[in-house]
Amino acid sequence: MDWPAIDWYVVGPSVGILLGVLVLTLLARLLIKYILRNLWTRRTTTLMTAMGIAFVVWASILSLGLLEGIGHSLRVSGDPNDLIVLRQGSTNEMSSTIDGSTAQEISTIQGVMSPDGGAPLVSAELVTATTSPRRWNLGDSNVVIRGMTSVGSTLRPGFNIVEGRFFKPGLYEAITSRRMAERFENAGYGEQFPISDSVRFRIVGIFESGGGSAESEIWTDLQTLSQVRERGGTVSSIQLRAIDSDAKDAVRDRITNDEQFGLEAKDEVAYFEDQIEAASVLRFVGYVIASFLTVGAMFAAANTMFAAISSRSREIGTLRALGFPRITILSAFLLESIFICSIGGLIGCLLTWPINGLSTGTTNFATFSEITFSFRFGPRVLLQGMGLAVMMGVVGGLLPAVRAVKINIIQALREI
Amino acid sequence: MKYLKYIFRNALRNKLRSILTIFSIGSSLMLTTLLYGFMDSQDEVREKIRQYDRIVVLSQQGFMQPLPLAHVDDVRSINGVLAAVPFQWYGGLYEDERVPFAQFGSDAEYYFDVWSELQIEPDRLEAWKNDITGCVVGDTLAKERGWQVGDKIRLKGTIYRFDLDLTLQGIYQETENPGPLVFHLKYLDEGLRQMGDRMSGNAGIVYVKAESSDVIPTLTERIDANFENSTKPTRTESEDAFVQIFMDMIGNVQGYIQNISLAVIFSLVLVAANAMAMSVRERTSEVATLKAIGFTRNGILTLILTESVFISVLGGIFGVLAGVGVWWAGGVAFPGQWPNADIPPQTLSVGIALSAAIGLFAGIIPSWRAAHFSVIDGLRRVV
Amino acid sequence: MGQSVVSVMGVFKEFYRGDIHIPVLQGIDLEVLQGDYYALMGPSGSGKTTLLNLIAGLDTVTEGSIQVAEEEITDKSEDELARWRSENIGFIFQLYNLIPVLTAFENVELPLFLRNLGKRDRAERVTTALEIVGLGDRMDHFPRQLSGGQEQRVSIARALVSDPTLLVADEPTGDLDRKSGIEILDLIQKLNEDFKKTVIMVTHDPQAAERAGHQVFLEEGKLVSSLTEI
């Protein structure tokens, strides 16, 4: 699953909510028909409230789907035995510099995987950025240009050319992802992308790489990029694969502990988890937005339920006189509120359909470079949306339901 | 006007409903106030920046690509330039902090000519100029870290291999935004050169103080023209346009905020309309009585519309005030990270106008219904 | 002599409205036997409905004891009372109090949800109850599709369906035209005579009260043998 760290925050409450609703349904089972009929009879009000809830849930899901998309685009489904080597103290590739010769030394370390008869799986990579205009006048942003060799692509699980071919060294050629091709001027297949003031690289291929961070980059030949950028053979990072997990630990320690290198090797998986932290401010903002909206919707749900209860107080009195226990009546009204909000939640979820997969982008302010992503309304986001809807129903319906069971039967029976 | 009391009483009749409606509208409009406040405050920030007549010279490849140091002197000699300094991000780590605070290498000689609005004691400035390893910081940063003049500040390079051993020579008074730590770029550059590092000789970007705001448009063109045929062509922007680059980088924030706000407004119209419809339904016989004693349809329509707008505007006022409150609290809780500007008054008035519009739209159907049902039905009807 | 169904002994009921002390019932003793049909009469404010509510377990006494089918109900908690009502009391209200969103059949079925009965058992009893009140052909109608008299008959069927110990009726004809009123009174009388139901009915209509085997008059919170003419 994507972003597994957050899974329990969703699965846990979802199961809790589901159980809660189940218990309520059991408690209110005698009056289920009564609730449904009421919802249907008052369908204009029901629908109005539900639509109000729907828009709110839609806006919340929009924010959550955006976050999910950003998270997905920063993540990489790296091989667990992959390491990334950066200069000591560097938190990302953009701010790291390593001598080109070091890469040679590292590939000789014991434990680095070398496929039968092939070169070791060590990829020295140069990461630079260039400011480039987005299409549709959406302003400029920095595009990551990564210089590498074909070993680099072997190290990316899920790497695949979907159109055209891989770049050839020394020819001012580059490849990029579909999302980048659509988002940036001159990054389309066959177009000439300006990489420096005087040099343009021809986009000769479109690749995919499991939707991860690589799909926010343009890839070209390491030597060519180094010359164009006058980097004198330095690189930004070295990515490598170890034979197995023991070898990985050994290689990591060997590199990190060597004072001569002044380098630091990290598990690639952990490295990308750190990068996702960059999105934590956005996540905070997203959750704040969703919670403000939810609170507003709770008041709306409470309003509808209070009205429902005050206009039905004689019915409630009658039910009480007939001997229906208070807990049944409380559960019934809570359930009614949850029903209304869930209908709204469902509509809200459906309304996100047209946006699902729509790609857009933002800047990762840790590296000042563009990350492209697609809105992702996966099961988790939809579950979160429905969870919010149910919560609106519970909180909005609680006080009205309590009021319903607190009414004075004798007065209620005579109310007109 | 004479019906105002009746409308007011009606709005208060079902206090719970009115309060819930007000809160519902309020909490959602608080959100839109904050979102639009954020967007509009960025315009304010740019507006404020404009008065300082500064321009920024970048590499044509963007601010990530450094300009050569030689460009600084060239820029300084261009007509219309009052002062010019290099401005190079260092990004070093202080003690065991994991995220670098703002540190820039610049030129002590001209730094306070370019940022002429910053106040520093002349003897402190003199001390900084005379100490190659000296640095100055803004008072926010000094207060946060508890630094005093004379303190040693060691920064470990992440981008550069050269670590900085700095001595704090002065603390300058900021105007609005927290200012960075500024050190002599010469110190870093000399260090890198001695190591034979290829990253020496870079100025980062060049900050320029123009003679006046009038010369800025021609000056930016002149600077770019000057470097057009050099190995490092430039892209010169006014400082506010430079700030806008960062805003643009976040992406289509405006579109996102508009979408969310639109959904919120739709939702609120439905919520308010629903509340109003419930009120009107409960008052059917009363409205019929009003008609029976001679109120016209338009009269009833106006009564109920006004009530709807009244409640909605109360919600709007509440939301806008709460938004300003949260904005203020955010500024206190996250100094430095929160946008350093107030929510512009026009954003607030738009929020309240919006709530009035919500009330108006929400009131249309319920009031039309109340105005058009038959008196006989209404009087007889038992709800 | 029949078995005692309701036994009211020394019941006082007082209300407080702010600081004002309102004595409503001041020492009521009443014995209702199986199969009795009582009419409670009296001017408004005399406490007749309060007495009915106390007997039906909707309200609690200030002092005294009420036993229904030899079970003390004055010391029951609210939820115990709710359960007790569902087993022992059939209500007939002045305003019928049908649930507008449920059909006649479903309204009558409602009290049976509180019993452990299968769907078929319920359907059988509901059908029987509706046939007794003469509405076998109106089962799928909603309350608003019925006349006032028909609504009250559905309400009576609902009171009957759980075969309660006691039927309580509060002004059952108060909201009906004369003809429907007579039909309802005929129906209640039939329940009393043919089905041996014990009935306590509050009414201010002397003609309705005449139908009952026993007339009891309340005046200023006390039982009197006959209503004094004012």
Structure description:
The complex is a heterotrimer of chains A (416), B (383) and C (230). Chain A has 416 residues and is an alpha+beta fold. The longest helix of chain A is centred in the N-terminal third of the chain and has 32 residues. The two termini of chain A are 56 Å apart. Chain B is an alpha+beta fold. In chain B, strands 1, 2, 3, 4, 5, 6, 7, 8, 9, 10 and 11 form an eleven-stranded mixed sheet that branches. In chain B, a hairpin with a 7-residue loop joins strand 7 and strand 8. Chain B is elongated and about 100 Å long. Chain C is an alpha/beta fold and 230 residues long. A six-stranded mixed sheet of chain C has the order 6-7-8-3-9-10, with helices on both faces. Chain C has a four-stranded antiparallel sheet with strand order 2-1-4-5, covered by helices on one side. In chain C, strand 4 and strand 5 form a beta hairpin. Chains A and B meet through helix 3, strand 2, strand 3, helix 10 and strand 11 of A and helix 2, helix 9 and helix 10 of B.
Strand content of chain B: 15-25%
Uncertain segments of chain B are: none
**What oligomeric state best describes the polypeptide chains here?**
heterotrimer
The helical percent of chain A reads 40-55%
- The number of distinct β-strands of chain B equals 11
**How would a textbook summarize the main sheet of chain B?**
11 strands, mixed
Which value, in Å, is the CA radius of gyration of chain B?
Answer: 30 Å
Total helical elements of chain B: 14
How many angstroms does the end-to-end distance of chain B come to? 30 Å
Tally of separate helices of chain A: 14
Backbone shape of chain A: elongated
- Average pLDDT of chain B, rounded to a whole number, is 82
Number of strand segments of chain A: 12
Gap from first CA to last CA of chain A: 56 Å
Poorly predicted residue ranges of chain A: 1-5
Query: Percent range for helical residues of chain B?
Result: 55-70%
Biggest sheet character of chain A:
10 strands, mixed
